[in-house]
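User: My advisor, Dr. K., asked me to get a structural model of this assembly before our group meeting. I'm new to this, so sorry if the format is off. These are the inputs:
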Amino acid sequence: MSPTQTNSEAKNDAGEHGYSPEKDAYLKRMKRIEGQARGITKMIEDDKYCIDILTQISALSGALQSVAIELLDEHINHCVLNAAKSGNDDEAAVKIKEATDAINRLVRS
Amino acid sequence: MSPTQTNSEAKNDAGEHGYSPEKDAYLKRMKRIEGQARGITKMIEDDKYCIDILTQISALSGALQSVAIELLDEHINHCVLNAAKSGNDDEAAVKIKEATDAINRLVRS
Amino acid sequence: MSPTQTNSEAKNDAGEHGYSPEKDAYLKRMKRIEGQARGITKMIEDDKYCIDILTQISALSGALQSVAIELLDEHINHCVLNAAKSGNDDEAAVKIKEATDAINRLVRS
Amino acid sequence: MSPTQTNSEAKNDAGEHGYSPEKDAYLKRMKRIEGQARGITKMIEDDKYCIDILTQISALSGALQSVAIELLDEHINHCVLNAAKSGNDDEAAVKIKEATDAINRLVRS
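Assistant: The format is fine. Below is the predicted structure of the whole assembly, which you can bring to the meeting.
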């Protein structure tokens, strides 16, 4: 691990996360979200009615929020719990702080 | 216009909307949003850390909300105002109702 | 009107706004919202379970958002439309800008 | 404990929660939030400009969200961690599910 590597990059080395068992399902949902984004671009290209575009943006936003909330759930169920169970209170505290900051960004985005 | 055609489909015929003068700028922003979505998919494929994925989801959500709020602004500035100025109060009322419903969906998505 | 008076203070002089005809209904809803806030304070005083408190906070948030969205709707239906109909395009533009900024704050609050 | 008592009512018996050490600070913040709600009611009574009322509603919403996010943080730091450390995996799972549901309601309220 190089000295410039960030904390979260270090974690990527492991390549095993809370969401890993559901990775295929997440990839499928993200592919659908990519399709929704392309659909919105196409609506603008085709001069569709602005309110109809807004409806699709809300649908895409909702789909993204669902993915985010499930990722958070996996983060707490795995990263936080594993740290807690291994008696590593400092690491558990760091991971909970990361979760809370992520919730804060989500609620306000 | 066939009797089964919806109100908003009828409007698409015109092909001229509040956002039309800025169409290229919107398309550029949507292309960037599509890229952000693909980036998130890639992060999951590459087993990136869940909190880093959540940060990107919030960024994408924020970018989408900005597009939505500007589209709403154009809708009010054009569709609503034009109806009001032409003395078509019923159409203005319909268009304001559409805007309010869209805001409601945005706030809750 | 004194030179230091802000635009919105000036408008308060009129004492007549889009929401005025529904003023009693809004006051009733705000009284209920005040009661919800006091209820949450009481839950904390009584050491209620944090998740139950969060449920009540979401309910209060939702009630507030509904009031906000209806106020916005009245703003567009009255302040914006009246400016547009009277041919005062600059004032209409200012009022739409105010509405868009308010939507932006709402979506991100 | 009576058979009709809910899970969360049962927890209230303990009277000791994650937020307990900060109870006074939370009560102070809730009192300020109650004051903000009364201020908004007064603005409507006094026929203040709708956009100014919306600004205050966003401020109140933001204050509520901050309280909610800190309560969630305490919930994870205490209720979830304690269950995890005591090896009570089922209870930890229940408490994480409660947290995720609360986040979901918050994000969409």
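One thing worth pointing out at the meeting: The CA atoms of residues 12 and 46 of chain D lie 41 Å apart.

User: Perfect, thanks a lot.
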